[in-house]
Each structure stands twice: as C-alpha cells, then as structure tokens.
C-alpha cells in the first residue's frame, strides 16, 4: 500500500505539471525554494542505472546474419531539417554505409516546416527510388505522400518517425529506427536524480510539435516526478527550427525568474544548449554549471565539444547516429530480399567528459564489421 501511495503521489505531481503546454509558454507549478529533501530509494536506483549506461566497453549486440547485399539501389533520405544535428548525423552514416554496400543515397531537406516536408516527400516519391527514409518527422503529417509511396511499392523506413522502434502498420513503415524513448527518458531523469543527489530545480526544453519529442518530454517529466526532491520549474516548448532565435531569450527570462533555484536542465535535443550558451555566458553563469545540462537525445559533435570543455553541458544521451545510418541500409536490404526487419534496438548510453575520451560522437564498436560481413563486403 505504501508503494501504491508513492506511485499515486508521483503521478499526481506529474499530472499537475502537465497542465498546459502552449507553444512558447513556460508552465509549471508554484516553486518552493527548498522543497522536499531527497529520495534515497529512487536515488539508489538512478545511480545504478546511470553506472550501467556510462559503460563504453559494450560489445556489439546487433544482428550478425542476414541477406547478402543486393546491388544498384537508390535511397532517398527525406530530412525534417538538416539543421537538426541528429537528422544530419544519420544522413552522414547512411552515406558512409552506401559507399560500402554500393548504393546511392540522396538527401532532400524538408527545411523544418510542414509545407517543406510535404514538398520534400512528394519530390522523393516522384523520383521512384528503391526506398525512402522518413527522417525525423511525423509521417501522419504527410499521409498523402506516404500513401502514394505505399501504392508505388516503395518501402519506407523511419528514423524517429514514430514513438516505438520496429515495424509499423499505421503508418506503413518497414521499420522505425530509434532507441527506446522510454529508456532515453528514464535514463535522463535518472542522471538528474543521481547527479543532484535527489535535490534539484529542473527546466525542460522540448519541441511539442514533434509527437516523438513531446512524448519523450512527458516521460522525462514523469521520471523526474518520482523524486519529491526534484522540483520541475518550467516546461519550455520551443520548436527546433526556432531554437536559435528563441532559446537565448527564453533562457535569459528563466534565469531572471528562477536564479539559483534553477540547477538542472533536460532537453529533448542537444541543440538547445548550443543556443542557450550565449545567454548563460552573458548572465555570468559558469560553463561547468549549475545549471547542469543533459541532452536527452542525438549527441551531435557540438554537444560533445561542450561536454568535454565544460561549456554549459554536462552530459548527453546520444543516439549512435552513424550506426543507425548503417542499420537503415541493412534494413532496406532485408526488405529488398523479402526478409523481416532485424528488430535491433541500440541500448541507451550516457556520455560525459569522464567517459568520452575526447570523442565527438558516440560510435560503439563492432557494427561496421558486422554489417560488412552480413553484406559480403
């Protein structure tokens, strides 16, 4: 019964904080300067999870068998926006893998707007390629184009296109490549709880226009709510295409409102901290924090540079972007051979200055060799 009451309290706290998320508006409950003290049990669980996720000597646990490479394929990667470092990182990985497997990859940039994404996907379908990648946007917003691709027999693979990894019936995707959003959200919240020893004032940055991102941020809020000592100060809804212009202004406002009560930040994408850095610097905040900032997704090179140099970001939960680019081509190869999707989902990882060894990406070992062997290359 005590556990049930604790869960109920956590859910009530999350529900209270979830009230209202209008575009560009900060929302949150009234903030206590002190708040409850800690959460020993939750902190212990968080610390154990973070320790596992920070390991770097993890062997390849993906596919080791599959159909040999077919030849002469052209894949079009429709990007939500190439200004999103995660989207761009996957495209880079696909191009690298394409040189190995012997295919052509073309990128069409949707420029981050609904009209631009629809036009980009229409152009992709008109090219009649072997396959199309839905790169970081909701296929529901391009249902007509998706239907045309399906009718033309063009297989579709998503990257962060829907919330869950694996095949999707509606929308019709051969598979969707992403880490488990639940795991990414949970480990981000765990990092805050563990690093803060159960006492923090947190601001969350998200793009609620992207269903995947909004779902992730809601899960993060629920994870943070499990620790009574973690106060959720504000929820900043800033669309990714607007981040460079709006984030500095919002950060300045948040610093004015919360001052030293703001000790941690979580963002659904690292790029928010690139845009926040000038405002932190102008306000005289130390690059090493507080606030201590963690990006719950992507892990682009600039994020690693900020982390390694102690400049307004302490950690990231990086996607293995290059590996996912290789996986996309392997999944297409399985589709062309009439095989099912591999079902592989990369495990979550946390990168910090202590474990990144100066790297500018999370690039786990073993996948290049494994895919070359599968493809016969």
UniProtKB/TrEMBL annotation:
Family: Belongs to the bacterial solute-binding protein 2 family.
Recorded GO MF terms: carbohydrate binding
Source taxonomy: Bacteria, Bacillati, Actinomycetota, Actinomycetes, Kitasatosporales
Source species of the chain: Streptomyces yokosukanensis
Short name of any one Pfam family annotated for the protein: Peripla_BP_4
Record region (Disordered): 24-43
Main location as per UniProt: other
Compartment list: Cell envelope
InterPro entries according to UniProt: Peripla_BP_I, SBP_2_dom
Domain Periplasmic binding protein: 75-329
Cellular component terms (Gene Ontology): cell envelope
Keyword Signal: yes
Protein name: Sugar ABC transporter substrate-binding protein
Keyword match Nucleus: no
Entry keyword set: Signal
């Amino acid at each position: 019964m005590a556990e049930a009451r604790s869960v109920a309290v956590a859910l009530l706290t999350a529900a209270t904080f979830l009230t209202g998320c209008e575009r560009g508006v900060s929302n949150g409950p009234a903030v206590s300067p002190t708040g409850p003290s800690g959460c020993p049990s939750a902190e212990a669980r968080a610390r154990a999870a973070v320790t596992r996720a920070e390991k770097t000597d993890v062997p390849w646990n993906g596919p080791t068998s599959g159909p040999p490479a077919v030849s002469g394929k052209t894949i079009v990667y429709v990007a939500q926006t190439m200004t999103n470092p995660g989207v761009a990182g996957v495209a880079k990985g696909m191009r690298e893998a394409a040189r190995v497997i012997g295919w052509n990859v073309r990128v069409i940039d949707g420029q981050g707007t609904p009209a631009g994404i629809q036009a980009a996907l229409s152009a992709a379908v008109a090219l009649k390629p072997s396959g199309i990648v839905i790169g970081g946007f909701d296929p529901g917003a391009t249902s007509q184009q998706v239907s045309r691709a399906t009718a033309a027999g063009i297989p579709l693979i998503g990257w962060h296109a829907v919330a869950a990894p694996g095949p999707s019936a509606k929308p019709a995707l051969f598979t969707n490549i992403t880490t488990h959003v639940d795991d990414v959200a949970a480990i981000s919240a765990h990092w805050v709880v563990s690093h803060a020893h159960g006492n923090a004032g947190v601001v969350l940055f998200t793009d609620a226009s992207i269903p995947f991102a909004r779902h992730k941020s809601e899960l993060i809020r629920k994870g943070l709510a499990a620790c009574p000592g973690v106060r959720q100060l504000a929820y900043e809804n800033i669309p990714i295409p607007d981040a460079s212009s709006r984030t500095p202004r919002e950060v300045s406002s948040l610093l004015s409102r919360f001052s030293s009560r703001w000790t941690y930040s979580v963002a659904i994408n690292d790029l928010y901290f690139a845009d926040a850095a000038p405002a932190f610097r102008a306000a005289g905040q130390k690059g090493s924090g507080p606030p201590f900032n963690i990006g719950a997704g992507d892990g682009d090179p600039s994020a690693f540079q900020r982390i390694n140099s102690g400049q307004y970001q302490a950690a990231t939960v990086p996607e293995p972007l290059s590996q996912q680019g290789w996986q996309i081509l392997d999944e297409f190869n399985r589709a062309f051979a009439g095989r099912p999707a591999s079902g592989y989902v990369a495990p979550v990882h946390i990168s910090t200055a202590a474990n990144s060894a100066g790297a500018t990406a999370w690039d786990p070992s073993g996948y290049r060799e494994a895919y070359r062997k599968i493809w016969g290359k």
